[in-house]
Amino acid sequence: MTKLSKVALIGNPNSGKTTLFNALAGQNKKTGNWAGVTVTESKAKLIRNNTQFTLVDLPGIYGLSLAELSQDELVVKQAIDQQDIDVYVNVLNADNLERGLFLTTEVLDLDMPTLLVLNMDDERAASGKTIDIGKLQSMTGCPVITTTAVKLHGITALFDAIEAALKQADKVEHKHSELPDDIDLPSAASRAEAIKAYVKSSDQVINESKRIFDARFQQAMDMAKAVTRTAGQSRIKGPRNQLSRIDRWLTSPLTGSLAFMLVMYLMFFFAINVANVFIDFFDIATGALFIDGTKQLLSSVNAPNWLGVVLGDGLGAGIQTVSTFIPVIGFLFLFLTILEESGYMVRAAFVMNNWLQRIGLSGKAFVPLIVSFGCNVPAVMATRQLTSRHERIITTLMAPFMSCGARLSVYALFVAAFFTEHAALIVLSLYLIGIAVAIATGLLMRKTILPGKPDPFVIELPKWRFPGILYILKSTWFKLRGFIVDAGKIILVIVLILQLFSSVGRDFTWGNEDVDESMLAAGSQLATPLFAPIGIDEDNWPAVVGLFTGLLAKEVMVGSLDAIYSKNTDDGDATIGEQLQEALQSIPDNAAGLADALIDPLGLSLTEIDAVENMAENQGVSSQLFGILQEKFHDSWAAYAYLLLVLLYFPCVTVIATIAKETGKQWAVFSALYSTGIAYLIASCFYQLVTFTSQPLFAGLWLSGCALVLVIFYQALKRHANKPTNKSIPLNIQ
Amino acid sequence: MSPSTEHPVQLSQAKAGHTYRVYQNACNESMSQKLTLMGLGMGMVIELIALYKHGAVVKTPFGNIAVGSDLTQTISVLLA
């Protein structure tokens, strides 16, 4: 089998490589108007006329020879070192040639066929600059193509140039970088190799590297000066100047922070409240189609009962769980896409940089943490914006402690039953405890297994860009589709397993869902004594079942608690058609409450105390549930301890699956165990502390034991960190 | 000390709205090279657009960049 030719896009960060990749490959890889969006390489197989090749999109890099490279820059170096790239397409920002040409001098020295692409040509034209393409071609010896990838301009010409370069891949006629005359390079496979060997053999490695760096930089400056001319008035002077005034507002501590809060408010509003309008639709419709529909279909063909459980209650319920995330994730992605493509993210990261540096993170970590309040899943994915490996993992471990929107439904239920006088305060306290645990986690990781200081903060402040609503929607859709497919596959398997356990009875018969005879219930009853230090008595085993079902998704907890405590069953009389009608009707019904949400984006009003019947109706549970909860949890302290557990323990399978996908399985396992352990310790210590006087000996021993566990855990982390082999747990790069 | 053409000051003590020449930076070689490629190399002429406690926004020959307070204290400039 012949090897497929490889064409690599290489260039400075934020020069539009991924947009160009998407334009060439017809894909929709994540783009953004800031440096560091692409942190891994993407590949696509392309066929044009009779030419087949693999197109590789490499992360952005300022220079191949810099003394220290970040994680994403190392990906570029590794790709080059493999020596299987046939053609380099060096992408430069046409509006900022000076910066890009330094890398060009290094790419030329690789002695491989190279094309220069001057991307963002529309911005170059708008700023009144002209570039002498012929001169640039003669100075570099490379074909030069101008493109505006976001508008698909120049793509055909680029394809033609790539085809031509691949046909003459053995011919390299371009110029090399200009080095000081006294440098006598040894013979090597390429000029880059020769330079490397020269520096390595030199007595003064640092000085020689610096001399070569300076020579390249000077050549890049001279070349840019020779080919660029600023003619006439910039067409963007007026509006861009106004935007730079906006920059002054957005980067100052006071107005920048206020603007950030406004943006976050809007994001919450969209991701929680506007998304909420559609959640019932997805929940009811997918439930009707994939659970009831599948079961009815199987029943009509006399399929065995177990098949209905597996396909309907297992697979169908899995699809239903995934579908309920679609509106939240979709709106978050939409909002984040707008923020990323416009260039706002950099401004926000700059304003927040100072605060986060105090816990060892850079300003860029702020965005994923804020996104966590909506849903932890996109937050974990948003850590891709962080280029430092340790910072990314720390942020990933912190994110699940930021209380997500789904947990709010559980708080609302318990607050209504136990904390009628201080409802909002109780919910607020949970949010704050979550933030505190997240910060403590960040500090703990920095001081132990993920040490280091945040990188000095320096980032390009890109020009504001608005790529158009169609581009935004398309980009959002591709991100959402990626989420549904990737995370969905893992969720389906886990949902299936949990469903099987809830359907199989102690006597191994089927059909025990939501009743205390299921294996899941039996397991919960066995596990209940473990939760005694948190205030969960033996007869309160349904609370433990709630924790198990909360592994799937926190919003599932309310339904399962209601079903088990109240022994309620769903209304199974509704036909699929009626359910679909109900699903459709839920959209205008939910939208009617949207105006109220404008002043309550976190949904705290859910916790306002109303008539019991109204509250029960609002939360879709039976009114007797509140009384049963009060009876089962013998005091409000036990209820609060339970809420602490819900706040902090295992986030949900979707989040853990996403962590596994983004950072690797070992970090997903660590996150699951760490969060659950911390949740158990905090919830039990809280309960033992507040009920100290009732059994002082046990409480004292328990609190001492917990303190000892924490010390041992800290020491274990320190010891683990000091082992040389454990200093670099690999990050999952795909 | 106020910035002048002869007496360098830290970027964190420079005045917004003025044009400066980068005189020195106390970063390691790698960061120094990165700063050069971002337009903050020694000898380069920059304009300090805004200066805050948490950092600065600087107009460089290559475009606007934001630098954190850690860097504004390591870069010294002369009035251009």
Question: What are the salient characteristics of this protein?
Answer:
heterodimer; A: 734 residues; alpha/beta; 29 helices; 61% helix; elongated; disordered C terminus; B: 80 residues; alpha+beta; six-stranded antiparallel sheet
Molecular structure report:
The complex is a heterodimer of chains A (734) and B (80). Chain A has helices spanning 17-25, 71-81, 97-108, 121-126, 133-140, 155-167, 191-201, 205-227, 237-251, 253-300, 305-342, 344-357, 366-371, 376-382, 389-398, 405-418, 423-447, 469-503, 519-527, 541-549, 554-566, 576-591, 594-597, 612-619, 624-632, 636-648, 653-663, 665-690, 696-722; strands at 5-11, 42-48, 51-57, 87-93, 114-119, 129-131, 144-146, 228-230, 458-460. By secondary structure, chain A is an alpha/beta fold. In chain A, strands 2-3-1-4-5-7 form a 6-stranded mixed β-sheet, sandwiched between helices. Chain A has a two-stranded antiparallel sheet with strand order 6-8. In chain A, a hairpin with a 2-residue loop joins strand 2 and strand 3. In chain A, helix 16 (405-418) packs parallel to helix 21 (554-566) and helix 20 runs antiparallel to helix 21. Chain B is built from 2 helices and 6 strands; from the N terminus they run E-E-H-E-E-E-H-E. Chain B is globular, with a radius of gyration of 11 Å. Helices cover 20% and strands 42% of the residues of chain B. Chain B has helices spanning 29-40, 69-72; strands spanning 9-10, 19-25, 45-52, 55-60, 63-68, 75-79. The model of chain B has no long low-confidence stretch (mean pLDDT 88). In chain B, strands 1-6-2-3-4-5 form a 6-stranded antiparallel β-sheet. Chain B is α+β, with helices and mostly antiparallel strands. Chain A binds chain B through residues 62-63, 66-68, 96, 98-99, 102, 206, 209-210, 213, 217, 244, 247-248, 251-253, 346-347, 350-351, 353-354, 357, 362-363, 456-463, and chain B through 27-31, 33-41, 49-50, 52-55, 57, 61-71, 74.
